[in-house]
Amino acid sequence: MDRRRKVALFEQIRREYRFGVGTIRGVAKQFGVHRRIVRQAMASAVPPERKVPMRSQPKLEPVKEFIDEILRADQQAPRKQRHTAHRIWQRIGAERPEVTVAESTVRHYVCRRKQDLGMAERETFVPQSYDWGGEGQVDWYEAFAEVMGELRKVYCFAMRSMAGGGAFHRAYYHATQQAFLEAHEFAFQFFGGVFRRLRYDNLKSAVKKILRGYQREETERLIAFRSHWGFQTEFCNPARGNEKGGVEGEVGYFRRNHLVPVPRVESLEELNKLLLAGCRADEQRRIAGKPHPVGEAMGIEREHLLPLPAEGFELAEISFPVVDSKGCVKARTNCYSTPLKPGTQTRVKLLPAYVEVWQERECVARHERSFSRYEQVLDLEHYLDVLERKPGALAGSSPLKQWRERGRWPESFDRLWQSLRERHGPQAGTRAMIELLGLGKRYGWDRLREAIKESLALGCTDAAAVRHLVTADELVRSHTEPCELSGLERYDRPLPQMQEYDLLLSLTTTGAEVAR
Fold this sequence. Notes:
It is a single chain. The chain is of the alpha/beta class. It is built from 18 helices and 15 strands. The protein has helices at 3-19, 24-31, 35-43, 64-74, 85-95, 103-117, 177-191, 220-229, 245-258, 268-281, 294-302, 384-389, 398-406, 411-424, 426-443, 445-457, 463-471, 499-515; strands at 135-147, 150-161, 167-172, 197-200, 207-210, 216-218, 232-235, 264-265, 317-319, 328-331, 334-337, 347-350, 354-358, 363-368, 376-377. Strands 1, 2, 3, 4, 7 and 8 form a six-stranded mixed β-sheet that branches. Helix 1 packs across helix 3 (35-43), helix 5 (85-95) packs across helix 6 and helix 15 crosses helix 16 (445-457). The longest helix is centred in the C-terminal third of the chain and has 18 residues, at 426-443. The model has no long low-confidence stretch (mean pLDDT 85).
């Protein structure tokens, strides 16, 4: 019974009691209700609120503490990288497979607990319609990733197709204009074409000054880049992110589903591979209100995009430094190591995330770009030829120190090096270790690490043993080719007859007896 009908019933009961039957039993019998209802009506004209019984949750009970622990951890996590109820339900299925619980049950519990913890938020989005290939929306957002054990902030570029719903994400340590433009090119390659119009907020990489209305003074670099790729630009009003709500919603969805929990990677390149895998996985997603899955819609939209130019836009900053006496070249204020001899003229490309050193159309060195000032970025591999002549310089060298800090020099290398020095002496042992490092340069560092690890596990710390394990796959072993026995029949010959020789032997024996 709804509340309006119950209020009307209470009125009839009260009237009948006062002007009719006059007894609780008689009123209850006349209206066919319990005497408790009659007493409630006589006590108040407003029916009491119905008490909702607290039901037990036997399926949810085993994971309540697990959910509470996630929500407590979220209070310390970045605000935009916290768990949703759906994500928590997915983690229960993956990490607590013995518990089977409905998503709606988890959702209700998480909603109640977030309200208790003051974490509940609601946001409304307005759906819109777009033409194929007509508009893409672009934004930067911040995230955190654990890179080589250190929690670092990264700036992620996002471009979303408004008609198809597909999106591209790429991370950088710094949101520079160079990174901004490079990410556009990666996004165009991902979508297979160029959108006719891109919508931005008023980020500094694109806008120098906000003028009246929608007019903007754009940066010269963006104007040249836009001219090269052939798209048009539109900008939102200041502090009105809802004007590009598509990419705003995409950022939230992607962050919750692919950056929670905080990813753990070894490098920025590995993080970008993880983001690209997330973009590919989202192609199976079906967005509410759209008739096609994201991947299928991207295939349709690809036919309506502007074609890609034959060549990309030149983004790198080019310089021509000379290798100094420490084997380094200078790019801006930082120095980067090379394997080239001092005095060599080089061509350095300063990219958004990397620095490349070229010499005679060959990339001889590639480093992760440093955004500090007056810093040396050194690679031990570039100094191996020098260290073969100066082995004593290895122990205190800056390249070795940086390799240790980056995790490229494992503890097994130190154990082998110490054993070689104890066996052959400091000078010869270090020289043998440097020779083994040369194998890593030639055959790959992963292969050398595994060989040293295997050698130490076998209790053998000889350089020759490690060299054998590294080069074992290249050893040439002779194999006897099988032959067909039937092909040997042509070499068959009749066995010799020995009777004539036996006769000669008998004659020789008889003559000897006569002479005697």
